[in-house]
Amino acid sequence: MPSYAKAFEVWNRKLHYYLGLYFLFFLWLFSATGLMLNHQQWFGDLYRRAETAYDTPIETPDGDTLAARTRDLMRQLGLQGEIDWPATQPVWHIDFNVSRPNGAAQVRVDLTAKQAYVREFRNRPLHAFQIFHTFSGSRFNQPASERDWMVTSVWVFAMDALALGLVVMVLGSYYMWWQLKKKRTLGAFALAAGLATCGAFVAGIL
Amino acid sequence: MVYRWLRDLHLYFGLFVSPFVLLFAVSVFYLNHGKLRPGTPPPSEAFHNLQIPDGFDRLKGREAAELAQHILPQVGVSGEIGFLRYVARDRHLIFPVSIAGLESTVDVDLDGRSALVMRRHMNVWESLSYLHKMPGPHNVAIRGNWVGIQVWRWLADATIYLLLFISLSGIYLWWTIKAERRIGLTLAAGGIVTFFGLVYAVIR
Question: Which whole number is the average pLDDT over B16-33?
Fold first, then answer.
């Protein structure tokens, strides 16, 4: 075997378990939350949340855009998270929602009265844990939705990194399996079974 | 003996589950970054003289979904019913039906015994994302009203359980390589610090 092929084999094997060890907790989180999302019947009180409502005076928010003014209001109110605006704003109002895995807030700001009306919701720990699975700040079927909190972008980067890591691990594992001549036949059956089952769904046969 | 068994099961389970892992991993990029722009509505196809079961005005949830499944073969559609909307005013029943690659919207005129069906084809990314999100947390009462999603739910669960087995057996297999313990522990610790650091940043 040429030396570069030997080096590739060694590093491919190392990369397989290095990536696996680094991403271990991320993988367990997405596995556990995936199971939760698919079995909501196991969790009766998952979505019950504590609510507090209050109103508080605010300063006229700074900024040229709705996003900038909203961020200034959030700073005044001590709120953080992904922002979501309703389709239309009432005149002299700024209404918005803020969400993050462990809670959310509905904010209605009357700019004339310089008053904010806030309803804050606190999610249960298990519910917060589940939200990490889908916390991307963007929905592919809602083109207007965008990430606007830097922390969400960092979390999405971690999701992407895990996905890429898994792809590299799977492709590397095919190479390692193929090098084991005695295991090729049974391995080919296992892979073919997986491909046929998964492929039937992707092709829309099932 | 244990080592050999675990190594072989790690390999064969891993090979079986690998297409599912690739599907769930690749679709993450579309779910995180993709945007589905609304196109022109697809043309609708009309169907007449349908056999419409009774009871849509009083049945809800699973029972209504199972009843609606009886209409689907008559309009050339199969798949998972997403939700059901009964419009009492003009006695119409409207529901989306999906399989990977195709989303149909069925609008049934219960009194006229006719239906309009709109079919919208999904691109490959959307199809993978659809499977990624199925069965999911929404409309739990009717989810799995089609055999395909019942099987897919089982396979999605199997993927998770096999991944957990593969990760645990992987830890054992790595631990047997003494020369790799130190760097492996360093990487695992780095991963744990990154993980909890990120979780803390999101919820603090």
Answer: 96
User: Could you give the percent of chain A with pLDDT greater than 70?
Assistant: 98
- Write phi, then psi, for B48 (nearest 5 degrees): -125, 170
- Strand, helix or coil for residue B127: helix
Q: How far is B93 from chain A (nearest CA, A)?
A: 24
From A27, A49, A181, select the one nearest B170 (Cα to Cα): A27
What is the tens place of the pLDDT at every residue in B127-160? Answer: 999 999 999 999 999 999 999 999 999 999 999 9
User: Residue A162: its pLDDT value, please?
Assistant: 97
Using a CB–CB cutoff of 8 Å, tell me whether B129 touches chain A: yes
ipTM value:
0.92
Q: Could you say which of B12, B156, B203 has the minimum Cβ distance to residue A101?
A: B203
- Predicted confidence at residue A46, as pLDDT, reads 87
- Residue B139 structure tokens: 């409309």
Helix (H) or strand (E) holding B99: strand B92-99
Contact A158 B36 (CB under 8 A): no
Mind listing the pLDDT tens digit for each residue in B173-185?
999 999 999 999 9
Long-range contacts of B66-69, Cβ-Cβ distance < 8 Å, separation of 24 or more: B66/B145, B68/B93, B68/B95, B68/B106, B69/B145, B69/B146
Which residue in A101, A121, A119 sits closest to A49, CA to CA?
A121
A78-89 per-position pLDDT tens digit: 999 999 898 888
Chain B residues within 8 A of A191 when measuring between CB atoms: 15-16, 18-19
Measured on CA atoms in the order B155, B161, B165, B168, is the torsion positive or negative?
A: positive
Residues 144-173 of B with CB under 8 A from A: 147-148, 151-153, 155-157, 160, 163-164, 167, 170-171, 173
Average pLDDT of span B42-66: 90
Domain boundaries, chain B: 2-34+154-203, 44-143
Instruction: Choose the closest CB to B31 out of A37, A40, A140.
Output: A140
Asked if A17's CB is within 8 angstroms of B173's CB, the reply is yes
In chain A, which residue's Cα lies nearest the Cα of B168? A24
Mean pLDDT (chain B) is 94
* Residues A103, A109: Cα–Cα separation, whole Å: 19
- Where residue A1 falls among pLDDT bands split at 50, 70, 90? confident
